[in-house]
Structures are given as C-alpha cells and as structure tokens.
Amino acid sequence: QVQLVESGGGLVQAGGSLRLSCAASGGTFSSYGMGWFRQAPGKEREFVAAINWSSSSTYYADSVKGRFTISRDNAKNTVYLQMDSLKPEDTAVYYCAARQAFGGTFNAHRGAEYDYWGQGTQVTVSS
Fold first, then answer.
1. What sign has the CA pseudo-torsion 71, 118, 88, 17?
2. Strand-pair partners of 34
C-alpha cells in the first residue's frame, strides 16, 4: 500500500513563496507519475502540476504556469512543488497523488488517472 504524506503548507503573504513536499512510502516511487492537485473551499478539486517517472515531462495548469515548478527526487521518494509569486487565489488544500501504471498515455490533469492520494496540506495566501 502506497502512502503519501504532504508537508510544507502554511500562511504566506501575496507575492511570497512556499515549497511543498510529498514523501512516498510502500511502493516503487521511481516508476510512478506524480501530480499535485488543489481544492479551495466551495470549489472542485483542480489539477495543478504533474511530472512523469523520469522527470523528462512536466505538466502545469495555465493558472500556475511560470510561477510553480514541480520536481522529484527518486532517491528520496519525494516530489516537490515550488510555488513562487503566490496569489490569494492559490489558497487551497494541496494534495499529491501517485499514478501507479507505468507507461502508456499519462493524462496528468485527470484525477481519475491517479491511484493514491495524500491527506493534503493547507496553503493560505493573504492579500
């Protein structure tokens, strides 16, 4: 059973930065596609960013492109989300997710693509 634990959330002023981490255990992390999603109060969960198993491909939502950077360290079984130039509209609970299937088309933006989810970490951006 794969477990994902997010950390690094908190309260930050607009224009500031945060770095989220997601540590994985119980599986073969180096073969998983990994994604970050977020859910704001009263809104549906939305895709933020994703990275394939080798880091050769990354994917971003238009709303975060140029401000957020996803990366991974397979030796540490960890995926990161560097968030810069934060805006109040980035306020949400951020979840990491793991796609267990290896190969094939990685529909990174689709929540149904992922097999495992973390519990989430709160990010609050004040204006």
1. negative
2. 51, 98
48-66 per-residue burial string, b: 16 or more CB within 10 A, e: under 16:
bbbbbbeeeeebbbeebee
Q: Are 79 and 72 in contact (CB under 8 A)?
A: yes
The SS3 call for residue 51 is strand
Tokens of 16: 């500031």
pLDDT given at position 105: 84
Asked whether residue 103 carries a pLDDT value surpassing 80, the answer given is: no
In the DSSP assignment, the letter for residue 42 is T
Lowest mean pLDDT among 12-16, 27-31, 47-51, 87-91: 27-31
CA-based nearest residue to 125, from 35, 64, 58, 34: 64
